[in-house]
Design a protein that fits this description.
395 residues; alpha/beta; eight-stranded parallel beta sheet; 16 strands; 37% helix; globular
């Protein structure tokens, strides 16, 4: 073995709970987990690290972000605090259009440079895998530029990036009144060109975004291209986008504040993960909570993510999302922690590679200075990270 972490308390996330192993050990060979179990039966290794009773979890996974973008919208937030509506700001050229203009003006290197501080904040809290969406370029070249910038981050930091094409995020000004023509661009040009750069295709199915019929056209194009789909669904209204996503075998449906039982049942039957985004719920001062009890009743896997973006969830703390998921949405400690590990991995189609501590998976780990796993959910503004391990190496 290359490396052995021993005398640790393991939260493997296997089974239905936290999968705790007291006085456990993890051995690594060639960047992959080769042994998980009692320290007394651990194999020998070239390097042994005594964890002195620290907890080890799988590397954390932020499965929904808009990390790559240019510009800053804090001034808009101040305007909203002063009583200016989002609609008024948007009509004045703010909102997503403001981020779009800044992102179009930035080259790939500038986008990478802008994203790195946000990424570093997440890595400092134990994130080893992050999903990054495009969606602020809204032209073929600019969407591909965003995807390339997301991919480039893997060369800058020890992190796994899952890149998602979100061309159907908003209607760019040059297509005003011609939404179907823009959907043609997404379906016929962006998606084929993104093959090899993107791991999945997403869309914003909403009254201020794209209709279910337009979203389905995007999904059909993704299927033709061999790319799985995800969906921003039921955030602001009930359009049954979650049901549509499930019909296309979506990896996840995200937000879900207005999802009903039919949507949840469809997701359960399809194995579609529910990604809850408490940062956006909090920042937008929403009052309609996602249907957590329905998701539980129908056995839908629940993931949590930051939704890091400049307009509705400007957060780079996945640990804070653990607390918000519990405090605002009523998730248990187990649900919250599984939501940023095993279920987040499923939401990215990576359940066979990451998300649990099991032999054969990537050796992505976090060592924590905590007394119990609940500390990760309970504390606010508390970062107990001792070490982050990506592919078997401390980083």
């Amino acid at each position: 073995m290359d490396r052995l972490w021993t005398h640790a308390r393991l939260a493997t996330m296997t089974g239905d709970g936290l999968g705790i192993v007291e006085d456990g050990a993890i051995a690594c060979r060639d960047g992959r987990i080769a042994y998980v179990g009692p320290a007394s039966r651990a194999p020998d290794a070239a390097e042994t690290i005594d964890c002195a009773g620290r907890w080890i979890t799988p590397g954390l996974i932020d499965c929904h972000t808009h990390l790559v973008h240019a510009g800053n919208r804090s001034s808009e937030w101040a305007m909203r605090l002063a009583g200016v509506s989002y609609e008024e700001i948007a009509r004045a050229g703010g909102g997503i259009v403001a981020t779009m203009r800044a992102t179009r003006a930035a080259d790939e290197a500038a986008l990478v440079a802008a994203a790195l501080p946000r990424l570093d904040a997440l890595l400092a809290e134990g994130v080893t895998t992050i999903e990054i969406k495009s969606g602020y370029g809204l032209t073929l070249d600019d969407e591909l530029k965003m995807l390339r910038a997301a991919r480039a981050l893997e060369g800058e930091r020890a992190v796994r990036v899952a890149a998602t094409l979100l061309g159907a995020h908003a209607l760019p000004p040059e297509y005003a009144g011609r939404a179907d023509a823009y959907v043609d661009l997404v379906s016929e040009a962006m998606i084929p060109a993104a093959v090899g750069l993107a791991d999945a295709v997403d869309a914003f199915c909403e009254g201020i975004g794209f209709s279910p019929a337009q979203t389905e056209r995007v999904f059909r194009a993704a299927r033709t291209a061999g790319l799985p789909v995800k969906l921003h669904a039921e955030q602001l209204s009930a359009l049954h986008g979650a049901s549509l996503a499930a019909a296309y075998g979506a990896l996840s449906a995200d937000h879900l504040e207005h999802a009903d039982e039919a949507d949840v049942r469809a997701m359960a039957e399809a194995g579609t993960v529910a990604v809850l985004l408490p940062g956006a719920y909090y920042f937008m001062r929403e009052t309609q909570k996602p249907p957590v009890d329905l998701l539980r009743r129908h056995g839908v896997a629940i993931a949590l993510a930051t939704d890091c973006n400049p307009g509705t969830s400007p957060t780079t703390s996945l640990l804070l999302m653990l607390n918000m998921g519990a405090t605002l949405f009523g998730l248990t400690v187990e649900e919250a922690l599984r939501g940023v590990t095993v279920h987040a991995a499923r939401a990215l189609g990576l359940g066979g590679e990451i998300g649990t501590l099991e032999a054969g998976k990537a050796c992505d780990l976090v060592l924590w200075d905590i007394s119990e796993p609940a500390d990760l959910v309970y504390r606010i503004g508390f970062n107990p990270l001792s070490a982050r391990v990506k592919d078997g190496r401390c980083c």
